[in-house]
Amino acid sequence: MTLPIGTTAPDFEAETTEGKIKFHDWIGNSWALLFSHPKDFTPVCTTELGALARLKPEFDKRGVKLMGLSVDPVDRHAKWSDDIKETQGAAPNFPMIADTDYNVSKLYGMLPAAISGDPLVRTAADNQTVRNVFVIGPDKKIKLVLVYPMTTGRNFQEILRVIDSLQLTAKHRVATPADWSQGDDVIIAGSVSNDEAKTIYPQGWKEPKPYIRIVPQPK
């Protein structure tokens, strides 16, 4: 089972393309995006890693660290990186976990606990549940979980949009409506009473129904 939102992201030590890391220490006081791939040299994941490398400045602006994962070893990650740069125009500029013992995949519910053996003999289809995205806050809590099929590439613009919402709603007592994007109106959280809301929003709010209180996005 995938880890539920609001639980503490499991800590772990792992070998990566940038050396050994301890996950919680690596996150520090930042946000983190942990995203996984079933195997190196797979076509959809090749496009995803290139896209994410090109978008890294956008994640940097938001204080979000990036960490990839595949069950293949570090030397294969390095060779795959060359292919990604050649075909996508950008190589991964963030660490990639070599989860050869399946430890992280199991901790995060992406592979069954009984899995064992040489990762190089497993196919992408064997590892197809390893297609997840986890957004983790500075408090080390899981804020978002997405699970993608092997045939559908991830939409990183949507992931950036969700991170914008998560960071906004962590700072202000608001929620974001359907299809919200940066700068759009937001909804006053249900935990805020009308008396509190009058103090926070003295200019008032739009109220199509008593449970829908709409205000401009807080600065």
UniProtKB/TrEMBL annotation:
Annotated protein name in UniProt: Thioredoxin peroxidase
Keywords (A to Z) from UniProt: Antioxidant, Oxidoreductase, Peroxidase, Redox-active center
GO term, biological process aspect, one: cell redox homeostasis
Family as reported in the entry's similarity comment: Belongs to the peroxiredoxin family. Prx6 subfamily. Belongs to the peroxiredoxin family. AhpC/Prx1 subfamily.
Claim: Cell division is one of the keywords in the record: no
One annotated Gene Ontology cellular component of this protein: cytosol
Cross-referenced PANTHER family: MCG48959-RELATED, PEROXIREDOXIN-6
Keyword Oxidoreductase: yes
Naturally occurring in which organism (per UniProt): Bradyrhizobium cosmicum
Residues at the active site: 45
Domain of life (superkingdom): Bacteria
GO MF terms, alphabetically ordered: peroxiredoxin activity
Domain Thioredoxin: 3-168
CDD domains for the chain: PRX_1cys
Stored InterPro entries: AhpC/TSA, Peroxiredoxin_AhpC-typ, Peroxiredoxin_C, PRX_1cys, Thioredoxin-like_sf, Thioredoxin_domain
Pfam families: 1-cysPrx_C, AhpC-TSA
